[in-house]
User: What shape does this take?
Amino acid sequence: MWRSRWNDRNWERRVSEIETSLLSIDRLGDAAAIIAAGGIVAFPTETVYGLGADATNAAAILRIFEAKGRPSDNPLIVHVADVEGVFRVAKEVSPIAQKLIHAFWPGPLTIVMPKGEWVSEVLCAGLPSVAVRMPKHSVAIELIRRAGVPLVAPSANRSGRPSGTTWEAVQDDLSGRIDGIVCGEPTELGLESTVIDITQSPPCVLRHGAISLTALQAVCPDVVSLEDLKGVEQVRLRKSPGTRHRHYQPHARVMVAGLKTEVMGNTLSEGWASNPSSRAWIGLSSPNPVSDWRIIQVCENVDEYARVLFSFFREMDRLGIEAIVCESVPEVGIGRALMDRILRASVDE
Assistant: This one.
């Protein structure tokens, strides 16, 4: 069966028996009260849904790790509602940090800075640094303000799974494991924030996102990417958020197609997921022949591709798809972040 389009905003809402409070946007006061009581609540941001808890409450932070099944050596990102909130978290806000904040906040940029004295060792996984972001999403900002404290907010999904970009995806992964979900629209960007570490010289991009390396270099010309470093230095930096552990994988096996889609034909014909009814395609163009695929998602541009990728992965799992082939895109702008997520989803262990 071929579908020329697949729309993640219109897929059938599949919510199991409700074990977690579903909170409408006008109930942010209730969500803030849950957080104040030491609970954990998922909420929308412009990147992906975050799983929020009081960043000053070590017990609540531990519940985040437990709910996600997240390794304890994988630090969390702190979300603040305003620039003043950074001074509650970081030991210092350097001139480089100030430039980045001025240029990109609020927005999908996480800055790794020296941590303040009160910041929990649990939150930072024992590191001397803390990762901080100010989201560009009115619901997220209002929830942080009402909570009255910075919030830790990793992606709202089970560890290793595709990040949740809809409240339904959060419900599928975390029902019964968290206290509430603020139900908003599907997220605008669909990929997690860019992470830059400014505690070392030169500043280093640890995870690619919507804020590109080129955009960062326009503000701080000496910024490099983790991939540009070698050996011991690269290993050390992989201890920071979002860089060390495997992420983003659906149950289906993911493969990557080259820019010329026909190169996948030989690989797929060797027996792996050779049944057309068990494989799906996503990319900027259609594969040939289309009869070889049960589902085909053709995105209008790279931005849409990035926005729908994780929801597509989850819907293909629901449909029992065994093989997902993702078409490569040039690693320019958000294309670099998109290819990072696709390649990490395709890694076998």
